[in-house]
Amino acid sequence: MENYQSTEKLESFMNNLGFPSLRIHTSLNHFDFTRRARRILVIGPMGAGKTEYTTRVWRDSKVARTKSALVAASTATGAADRRNVFFVRPGLDTRQFHNCPPGSLPYRGGIEDLGGKISGAADSFALEALFKEHPEVGTWIIDEAAFFDERLVYLMAKESDERGVIFICPTLVLNFRRETFNATAKLLLEQATDIFPLSAYCDHPDCLSDGYFSYRYYLVDNIECPALYFDPLLIIGQTDLRHSEYEPNYCTRCEKHHLLPGKRYTYMALKPLGNLASAGDIAPLRNELAAIQAGSHTSKLFTMFEDYYLRGEKRNETMMNSLKVAAIAEKALLYLYTEANLISTDQLLSLVNELQLDRQYIRLRLADCHRSVAAL
Predict the structure, then answer these.
(1) pTM (predicted TM-score)
(2) What pLDDT is stored for residue 18 in this prediction?
(3) Where are the domains of the chain?
């Protein structure tokens, strides 16, 4: 998992074994519990092995705890012994763990029994309470740390600086738009002492390249429909494959096969319409949403897609499939309301009522980002 050996030493070792001069890659070492005050980011897309990395740390800790008191002197700072490992997952959504035995950690390679050293935490305050309950723990694994509030980052810095605690954060730092996930992810990158980037094979059937990006898509009549750029940033749902116009799927893609239609439209058309609405002129936005909802080829969305993906230099008919999904007008409206903050709650309600938009879908997506509108 860690590598502090020089290439020269490794080459010398291999030569002593009788190997000729080869291109030698550095080895994957056991975790170093002697190095204090580290904030380690393990980053990569789904399927890259982030959780498997943490299970290796757990297995290494079991071996390290069998060592003598002399070793303990090198792995402890006060009451916190870095060989004592505790795993925390965010309280945002636990549906993907419903089949996992209590006290265990599921990953793609199987299930690791953590002996009860695992818990959920809804936010940084709940996490802080866990620190106080377990002062003996010197290595905390915070799964999907980017889902926590920003305070988490400074809380980790305080604990590591004052008590020598190690934090390991296997997490996404990029969202499906290939942008930094959120403010917490940005702060994690700023405050990290070590970063381990992992990759996975690109999921595209014609590709064996390294994939670094999380790709969101919908399956409509078994057709791959790339998620639009203004698709809701956070959608909580099941992890199994979904054949749905409403619920997306995720996989890992390389840069070539990561499709993201609608970014140009978002900044050239949708946000300017939101700016007009914010200034009091809501009619142009209403007309565009109505055209999108009706599937009209007169919408700015369709005409821009047609010009760019069917006639332009970047012709790609798969991009057009993104218009086959449901609730596109709702997604555009939610983007302007929850992310761009360009329309008011009154304007949201007015447009939902006037255009008879899908209230249930809007309520679900608002709930995903911990927002609600009572009148919906």
Answers:
(1) 0.82
(2) 60
(3) 31-198, 210-253, 263-368
